[in-house]
């Protein structure tokens, strides 16, 4: 005879409940026995039953796209299949016994019965399961988000090998963008557009601004002198090429971040007075994120040494930005940037180019 009470008390899902709760749950549990190599749940099937393992070991695996791989092994006290019980959805993994296995089975019918008899207890169980579920979702989505962010930055860094602009430039410009965006968010004109979500987006997308340079030849990218007219025209195309690359990513993923990146790639060389490229947009017709990027990009370029020019002093760079208000740059953005200029200078100092530090 199984000692169901101590099994429940020792299980990962139900530990910590009162003894009479265990007795009430126990009435709804059905002991089941599986032989070796038996599939308890199959990924993709719909299911509403969970199993508390009493004896034996199971393997939890999933189809990774390139093959079935084991994610975990579970033994006595572990619970499997509980996600389907709360979400009434398809199984997210396959559970197979590795030896003779005994379980206690609990399905949605039992759960409904418990809900009738003891709503408070049923609710408590639902809460425990939901918490477990959301912890898992949170952990998984955090991991995915981290990987996604790292990939976006790695993609942006691809230009580094083919571009006189360095990884430190990408790090600095994304930080100038955040700083400027945060300061602008206080301004009544931008209060509604610049949200925390926007700021996070610009931080992620800014490093992609020159991704289109991967398609520009070395003879133009690394030319030590000023470019000739034809070469300059070719160089300008990095905006539309970058935007087209982002367009393809949008088609594949639909991710909002790449819409922001698309506009940054396309419009970061537009000028406030309409004399920029590639579209010749003027004033507020230039997307906000591209206006922010333009000022961040130029400011950093002024302070940096390039093959065709030497670095400016911080004072000169500041004056150059001031002079660009209303012609090259959004005048409000220039005001806000100059009001916070020491914080921009701190970023420049913090992320020095490796070769010059
Ligand atoms: Fe550019
Ligand atoms: Fe740049």
Give a concise summary.
By secondary structure, this protein is of the alpha+beta class.
Q: Could you please describe the fold and organization of this structure?
A:
The chain has 357 residues and is α+β, with helices and mostly antiparallel strands. It has two domains: 135 residues, Jelly Rolls, CATH 2.60.120; 188 residues, Hypothetical protein af1432. 51% of the residues lie in helices and 11% in strands. The protein is built from 15 helices and eight strands. The chain has a four-stranded antiparallel beta sheet. Strands 2-7-4-5 form a four-stranded antiparallel beta sheet, with no helix packed on it. A hairpin with a 4-residue loop joins strand 4 and strand 5. Helix 6 runs antiparallel to helix 7, helix 6 packs across helix 12 and helix 7 packs across helix 11. The longest helix is centred in the middle third of the chain and has 39 residues. The radius of gyration is 29 Å and the shape is elongated. The mean pLDDT is 90. The structure holds fe (ii) ion (FE2) (2 copies). One fe (ii) ion binds next to helix 6.
Question: What structural class do the secondary elements suggest?
Answer: alpha+beta
Query: Could you please say which CATH topology of the largest domain applies here?
Result: Hypothetical protein af1432
> What is the CATH superfamily label of the largest domain?
Hypothetical protein af1432
Which architecture of the largest domain would the CATH scheme give at its second level?
Answer: Orthogonal Bundle
Mean pLDDT: 90
Low-confidence stretches: none
Number of strands: 8
Give the distance, in angstroms, between the N- and C-terminal Cα atoms: 73 Å
Helix content: 40-55%
Count of separate structural domains:
2
Radius of gyration: 29 Å
Query: Which band does the percent of strand residues land in?
Result: 5-15%
Bound molecules: fe (ii) ion
Strand order of the largest sheet: 1-8-3-6
SSE string: HHEEEEEEHEEHHHHHHHHHHHH
At the first level of CATH, the class of the largest domain is Mainly Alpha
The geometry reads as elongated
Largest β sheet strand count, sense and barrel closure: 4 strands, antiparallel
- Helix tally equals 15
């Amino acid at each position: 005879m199984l000692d169901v009470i101590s099994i429940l008390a020792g299980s990962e899902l139900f530990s910590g409940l009162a003894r009479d709760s265990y007795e009430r749950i126990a009435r709804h549990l059905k002991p089941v026995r599986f032989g070796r190599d038996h599939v308890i749940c199959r990924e993709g099937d719909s299911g509403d039953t969970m199993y508390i393992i009493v004896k034996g070991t199971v393997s939890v695996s999933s189809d990774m796209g390139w093959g079935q791989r084991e994610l975990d092994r579970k033994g006595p006290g572990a619970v499997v299949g509980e996600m389907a019980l709360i979400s009434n959805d398809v199984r997210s993994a396959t559970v197979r016994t590795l030896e003779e296995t005994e379980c206690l089975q609990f399905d949605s019918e039992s759960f409904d019965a418990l809900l009738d008899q003891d709503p408070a207890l049923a609710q408590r169980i639902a809460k425990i399961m939901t918490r477990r579920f959301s912890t898992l979702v949170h952990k998984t989505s955090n991991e995915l988000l981290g990987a996604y962010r790292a990939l976006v930055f790695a993609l942006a860094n691809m230009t580094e090998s083919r571009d006189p602009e360095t990884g430190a430039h990408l790090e600095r410009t994304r930080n100038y963008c955040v700083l400027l965006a945060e300061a602008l968010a206080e301004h009544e004109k931008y209060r509604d557009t610049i949200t925390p979500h926007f700021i996070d987006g610009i931080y992620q997308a800014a490093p992609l601004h020159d991704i289109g340079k991967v398609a520009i030849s070395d003879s133009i990218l690394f030319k030590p002198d000023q470019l000739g007219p034809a070469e300059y025209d070719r160089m300008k195309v990095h905006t539309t090429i970058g935007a087209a690359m982002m367009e393809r990513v949008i088609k594949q993923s639909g991710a909002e971040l790449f819409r922001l990146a698309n506009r940054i790639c396309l419009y970061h060389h537009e000028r406030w007075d309409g004399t920029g490229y590639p579209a010749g947009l003027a004033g507020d017709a230039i997307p906000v994120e591209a206006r922010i990027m333009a000022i961040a990009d130029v400011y950093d370029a002024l302070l940096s040494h390039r093959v065709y020019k030497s670095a400016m002093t911080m004072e000169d760079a500041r004056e150059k930005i001031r002079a660009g208000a209303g012609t090259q740059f959004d005048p409000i953005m220039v005001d806000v940037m100059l009001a916070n200029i020491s914080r921009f200078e701190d970023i420049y100092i913090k992320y020095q180019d490796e070769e010059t530090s």
